[in-house]
Structure to design on (259 residues):
């Protein structure tokens, strides 16, 4: 095992990787390994991105599409967290509920979120319910699984102490299992946030009239690869911001607990 990497060295390695990637991309586009229309130069993509900030494409500017995507994403993700976390804690405490729900959950969680698109279109049409269902399908399983595991592995001494003082089942879930499971829950929310954000593009295939996914599909239809790449970069950057924010919450909880 080598010496642990310092923060400055990690930053340098990350920058080196990015420079190598863009250098390879520039070289491939410059020598036209593919027609320029399908493999634009990096600065052409950047130029198109800045143009989309002021010039609408498919009815909206880039920030307008992004705002619509964020709104859909938050509905699906927050709904998944609001249901998945409490349900996971309850399943971790009540064995009978675990036995009832686990077979159903295990049979559904392996269905890819994109597979729910036909049902979402049939059930909800072009309303807000369709995209919310697709994002919920991607974000819900990690929320429930990590909350469940956190509850199952709580130190039994805490539970027994609460029982000695006469705490009811729901009070134990709220005041013992929830605080003790927070690290596992936050880790699940990080996974859930990424999975839900990845499901967003599939959600916006359901007759959406705005959103990054729609912008990318319309760019593909116009054979404009630069628009598709702008959409991909926007999705990647915002997804990274979500993960950084949740990672900060996770680190803060770990510091408070002395971990």
């Amino acid at each position: 095992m080598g010496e642990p990497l310092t923060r400055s060295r990690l930053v340098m390695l990350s920058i080196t990787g990015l420079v190598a990637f863009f250098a390879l991309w520039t070289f491939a586009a410059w020598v036209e390994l593919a027609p320029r229309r399908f493999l634009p130069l990096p600065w052409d993509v950047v130029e198109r991105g800045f143009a989309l900030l002021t010039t609408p494409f498919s009815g909206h500017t880039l920030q307008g599409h992004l705002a619509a995507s964020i709104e859909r994403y938050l509905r699906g993700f927050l709904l998944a967290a609001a249901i998945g976390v409490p349900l996971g804690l309850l399943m971790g405490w009540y064995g009978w509920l675990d036995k009832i729900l686990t077979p159903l959950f295990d049979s559904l969680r392996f269905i890819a979120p994109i597979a729910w698109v036909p049902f979402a279109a049939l059930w909800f049409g072009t309303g807000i319910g369709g995209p919310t269902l697709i994002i919920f399908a991607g974000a819900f399983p990690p929320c429930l699984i990590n909350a469940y595991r956190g509850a199952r592995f709580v130190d039994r001494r805490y539970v027994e102490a609460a029982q000695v003082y006469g705490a009811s089942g729901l009070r134990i879930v709220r005041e013992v299992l929830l605080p003790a499971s927070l690290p596992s829950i936050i880790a699940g929310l990080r996974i859930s946030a990424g999975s839900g954000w990845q499901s967003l593009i599939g959600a916006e295939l359901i007759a959406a009239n705005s959103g990054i996914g729609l912008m990318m599909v319309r760019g593909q239809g116009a054979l404009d690869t630069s628009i598709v790449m702008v959409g991909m970069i926007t999705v990647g950057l915002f997804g990274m911001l979500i993960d950084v924010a949740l990672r900060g919450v996770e680190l803060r909880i770990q510091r408070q607990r002395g971990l």
Remarks:
- Residues 25 and 157 are 57 Å apart (CA to CA).
- The longest helix spans residues 62-93.
- The chain has a mean pLDDT of 85.
